[in-house]
Design a protein that fits this description.
The complex is a heterodimer of chains A (291) and B (295).
Chain A lengths: L9 H11 L2 H16 L2 H19 L20 H15 L4 H11 L2 H9 L1 H4 L6 H7 L5 H8 L3 H6 L2 H13 L16 H16 L20 H10 L4 H14 L8 H13 L3 H11 L1
Chain B lengths: L2 E3 L9 H10 L1 E7 L10 H12 L1 H7 L4 E6 L9 H14 L5 E8 L5 H17 L3 E4 L5 H15 L6 E4 L6 H5 L4 E5 L8 H11 L4 E4 L11 H11 L4 H16 L39
Parallel strand pairs in B: 1-2, 2-3, 3-4, 4-5, 5-6, 6-7, 7-8
Helix pairs in contact in B: 2-3, 2-4, 4-5, 8-9, 9-10
The chains are: A mainly alpha (291), B alpha/beta (295).
């Protein structure tokens, strides 16, 4: 995924949503839009929360698939209900000066699906990253639904999290057995500290005779680490599980464009594996790296 | 041989566990204050929990022939709710001075945040002021960094290192703690983290000085019999009974004996009297009460 600079606007979101919704849901949304635009400010929070509560009954669970491509937006996990909630939250926020308080209360009083929707749309709701603390606190939840909403396919952490919190997000995602290839900005935000943390975690798992999650290798940048990391890479490059081998190879491919920067030791490992790799697709990819 | 488990969350365990623990030879335990599995939202919840540790749970353990002690503290997970954490810090000094409270803990890091840092430091200061030993939990994620930071905080605080037990250690983190005078805790779990064979290897490699094992059994998949099982693993690998007793009985008690509220001489299997009640509540549900008479 690439970083670009122009966000989706409220108008864009509403248009995409209205084009997607069934007629009855569209009417409900348009009514909600008018209600929010005409609501007294003191009633705004209550009005938007009440609309949010019933959103799913009107809009359903189908995937939200915008026609246009928008920069720094990722809709992989959005349902039309999520989009509707985010649009309603955004309408309310445009009317109020105390945006931070409203946003905090929308999160606090929402149930888990509502919290998840807010986090998925945080990039729109908080375009300057002022509510980073809310997002960081959201990462401390144990609810997988809420945690996945901030961690996966969400540009917000990559754009606004300090490095320490970004690293903790990656590590916790691995702990939660989530596929970190779905974390937006993973490659771009690799850093020495994260590589070291992830390698330690992989070593800890191996000591406990447990299998590291295959996507773990994507967070490990070999140029940040000493040769001990190569030992781990070598071990899992020839792991019996094809998913592990695939993930290790993908990690190497990400780290070494163009391939002629690969270290001599790693080249030797790859040559050895090329000779014994049983999966033809992986074999071809190894050979492409070597040549 | 008697055993002592210095880190077990019995509030989350059943009477079957107590019976099995007693049958396996466990005569005493320490239950550190911790979180409940989901965040508490007000200080009152902590007050009720602390009261349970020194009240009902202390009673319940004795009903099965096990001495129950505890530590008091604000755990790292709940340190991030600052308003609530500040409220807990106001009540902690009083609870740390209750009978059967033998230390401050378990405290430490979870996500290694500035808030966790603050309350870890404040609680170490509290322990210093009350001359209590401290039980520190190393984080389950980013363990190596968390252990290093923990050691730094201990050094910065000026607390005597021998008053600190750093727990949940493994092959990666034990060497770091061995460079200090802190005590070395290891939690033995089924299938994850640390196992009996790995623990035995650590004891063979690094010796027994200040080494402690515990089950850290709680509401998750864990085994309250891991201390006697580790003792058995030690025997099978050639350790003497004296050495087994050192790790599984004397070391943990001697660490917490620095509180002045527990000692080797004090820890003996209590006589069971299941006719007793606690606030009119009893552990039996129609069974015949066991009443043991002293000699």
């Amino acid at each position: 995924m690439e970083y670009r600079n122009t966000l989706m606007t409220l108008t864009d979101l509403c248009k995409e949503l209205v084009d997607t919704l069934a007629p009855s849901a569209r009417n409900w949304f348009n009514d909600g839009y008018e209600l929010l635009n005409n609501s007294p400010i003191d009633d705004l929070e209550d009005t938007v929360l009440t609309l949010s509560v019933v959103a799913r009954r009107h809009c359903g669970d189908t995937a939200f698939l915008p026609i246009q491509t928008y920069n720094e937006m990722c809709f992989n996990t959005w349902s039309v209900t999520d989009a509707a909630r985010i649009a309603l939250f955004l309408i309310a926020l445009t009317r109020i000066d105390e945006k931070n308080t409203l946003l905090k209360n929308l999160y606090r009083y929402g149930d888990e699906p509502e919290k998840a929707a807010l986090l998925k749309g945080l990039n729109l709701l908080d375009p300057n990253g002022g509510q980073c603390t809310l997002a960081i606190n959201a990462c401390r939840v144990n609810s997988l639904e809420v945690y996945s909403a901030i961690a996966l396919h969400n540009p917000y952490p990559a754009l606004y999290f300090p490095e320490h919190n970004w690293n903790q997000l990656i590590l916790k995602s691995l702990f939660q057995h989530l596929d970190i290839s779905q974390i937006y900005g993973l490659q771009k935000k690799s850093n020495c500290e994260l590589s070291s943390m992830v390698l330690s975690y992989a070593e800890e798992l191996v000591l406990a005779e447990r299998i590291p999650p295959p996507s773990i290798w994507l967070a490990l940048k070999l140029s940040h680490l000493d040769d001990s990391a190569l030992t781990m890479i070598e071990r899992f490059l020839c792991d019996p599980d094809v998913k592990q081998r695939h993930s290790v190879l993908e990690s190497i491919e990400f780290q070494y464009p163009p391939p002629n920067e690969i270290s001599p030791k790693l080249i030797e490992h790859l040559k050895t594996q090329s000779q014994r790799e049983a999966d033809n697709t992986l074999k071809s990819r190894i050979e492409a790296l070597l040549h | 041989m008697p055993y002592f488990d210095p880190h077990i969350h019995m509030l989350a365990r059943t009477t079957d566990d107590y019976e099995n623990m007693a049958a396996a030879g466990i005569v005493g335990i320490i239950e550190p204050a911790f979180w409940l599995g989901q965040p508490r939202t007000n200080v009152g919840s902590f007050i009720d929990y602390f009261d349970t540790l020194i009240g009902w749970e202390h009673f319940r353990a004795k009903q099965f022939g096990i001495m129950h002690f505890c530590t008091m503290g604000l755990n790292p997970k709940e340190s991030n709710d600052i308003e609530m954490a500040e409220g807990v810090m106001k009540i902690l000094p009083r609870y740390c001075q209750k009978d059967n409270v033998v230390g401050v803990g378990e405290i430490g890091y979870d996500d290694i945040t500035p808030e966790e840092d603050r309350f870890l430091c404040e609680q170490i200061e509290l322990a210093k002021s009350l001359n209590l030993p401290v039980l520190i939990h190393t984080p389950h994620r980013d363990k190596v960094s968390g252990t290093k930071r923990t050691i730094d905080v201990i050094k910065e605080s000026g607390i005597a290192e021998e008053m600190v037990l750093i727990d949940h250690l493994n092959e990666q983190t034990l060497p770091l703690v061995l460079e200090t005078n802190c005590w070395r805790g290891h939690s033995i779990y089924p299938n994850t983290k640390m196992s009996e064979p790995r623990m035995v290897k650590l004891l063979q490699e690094y010796g027994l000085d200040k080494m402690i094992v515990n089950s850290a059994a709680d509401w998750g998949v864990s085994d309250p019999l891991k201390v006697p099982k580790t003792a058995q693993a030690m025997r099978e690998s050639g350790f003497s009974e004296e050495h087994v007793s050192q790790v599984t009985f004397e070391n943990p008690i001697n660490f917490f004996a620095q509180s002045g509220r527990i000692s080797i001489d004090m820890v003996k299997k209590p006589l069971i009297d299941q006719t007793e009640t606690f606030n009119d509540n009893r552990v039996l549900r129609g069974q015949n009460p066991i009443v043991e008479k002293g000699e």
